[in-house]
Design brief:
heterodimer, A: about 220 residues, mainly alpha, 7 helices, B: about 200 residues, Rna Polymerase Sigma Factor, Chain: A, Arc Repressor Mutant, subunit A, 2 domains, 9 helices, about 0% strand
Chain lengths: ~220, ~200
């Protein structure tokens, strides 16, 4: 065996991967070759030192206690963060719900503002076309959080306009509702004057009570 | 027999991890106590700085515990922990290198290594011991990691490959080159001293 071939077997020899035959061949070569014997001894003894030497440094004795204290600290800080988040997020969420309600976000049907279930007659005075579409995100055309300043200003202006329009609409609706109520009170008073003891008798005279529901 | 014992160890480890996942502090303590010395020794050999090694070791455990849910049972916990530790160690070394320039391991004072036996060793053997560790310090990080995991942690090339996130063939290549470099660096040591050391260490038989 030549030196080059012998040295190619060194790694396998050190890792205990040589067959019995290869081991004999390598040993036979090393008996004759001082260079290979020396090289192999160097690698062998280096491995032995690296495997068996004691560590010159050790961890602090209280390492485990300190580490577990850090684990506890992390858990409690996570809890604190969560609680803080709840304290901030809960009022914000409540405020958002109130605002969304104010802007009619939850109104799926137009004309519900007056509460049609309770006010069958009054409902008829409210025209759906008078109520603008709810203040929905679709109107804003916001696609991401990186809108340029100009777009943001435009967005704010549109929101303000929408808010003003909405307020005017609500005010005009309230005026109409007031008027209708006053008219009905007048009618009732007239009826009462006719027969104050028997209101049931004149029930069907009330305007808007028939199927059409309109005055 | 050996395989059955290994299976038993793995089963115990799985149970321990399951307890740790459910927040059992005693299980966490047991995991730390089982692995801390080996991990610290490895990281200290990589960084050669006690403070850095302790910090990286602690951070590696914290990171491992924080992401314990993502640990896959088919691997050993030590392999996973060493993978985290090795990555953190490399990051720490890179940061230090960026601030202070290349770390000159050769200029660092060598700690006094101790023989595993209580025999009084010759000056030549002590010199060789010092030369070997000095040579290890001069290997590249990947070669050093390969050598340390192979010799000091008795890991297989497959385990080392997982930790270093390299193919097994690359790890074998690192080991081969590391041995070659060590051999070249130690060439000046006389054959006579080596043989004497081998006799002292009981290797000659």
């Amino acid at each position: 065996m030549r030196c080059e071939a012998a040295q190619n077997l060194f790694d396998a020899y050190l890792d205990g991967e040589l067959s019995a035959g290869q081991r004999t061949e390598l040993g036979a070569h090393c008996v004759k070759c001082a260079d290979c014997r020396r090289a192999l001894a160097l690698m062998e003894v280096s491995g032995h030192i690296m495997t068996s030497d004691r560590e010159p440094v050790t961890l602090d004795a209280n390492f485990t206690d300190r580490l577990l204290a850090c684990v506890d600290e992390q858990e409690s800080s996570w809890m604190r963060r969560w609680q803080r988040w709840i304290y901030v997020a809960a009022p914000l969420a409540a405020a958002a719900v109130v605002l969304m309600g104010f802007f009619g976000f939850f109104d799926s049907n137009k004309g519900r503002v007056a509460g049609k279930a309770e006010t069958g007659q009054i409902e008829s005075v409210i025209d759906d076309s008078e109520i603008p579409e709810p203040f929905l995100d679709d109107d804003l055309e916001v696609t991401d959080g990186d809108a340029p300043a100009g777009e943001l200003q435009q967005l704010i202006r549109r929101s303000q306009n929408n808010f003003d329009t909405r307020r005017q609409d609500v005010e005009s609706l309230l005026e109409k509702v007031d008027l209708t109520i006053l008219q009905k009170i007048d009618v009732l008073e007239q009826l009462n004057e006719q027969d104050p003891t028997d209101p049931e008798k004149h029930k069907n005279d009330l305007p808007g009570h028939d199927a059409s529901g309109d005055e | 027999m050996k395989i059955a014992a290994e299976d038993n160890v793995r089963e115990l480890e799985r149970k321990l991890i399951a307890r740790a996942r459910s927040g059992d502090k005693l299980a966490l303590r047991e995991l730390v106590d089982q692995h801390k010395d080996r991990l610290f020794a490895f990281i200290w050999r990589m960084t050669r700085n006690h403070h850095d090694a302790e910090e990286v070791c602690q951070d590696a455990f914290l990171k491992a515990f924080a992401s314990l849910e993502s640990f896959r049972d088919e691997f050993r916990f030590s392999t996973w922990l060493f993978t985290i530790g090795y990555r953190m160690c490399l990051n720490r070394m890179r940061k230090k290198q960026a601030i202070n320039g290349d770390i000159d391991f050769a200029s660092m004072p060598l700690p006094s290594h101790e023989s595993p036996s209580d025999n009084v060793e010759s000056a030549e053997a002590a010199q060789l011991r010092s030369d070997v560790w000095s040579a290890v310090d001069q290997l590249s990080p990947q070669q050093r990691a390969s050598v340390l995991l192979f010799y000091r942690q008795s890991m297989s090339c497959q385990e080392i490959a997982r930790i270093l996130e390299l193919p097994v063939a690359t790890v074998k290549s690192h080991l081969h080159r590391a041995r070659l470099r060590l051999r070249n660096m130690l060439e000046s040591t006389s054959e006579k001293d080596l043989l004497q050391f081998r006799n002292l260490s009981g290797l000659a038989g």
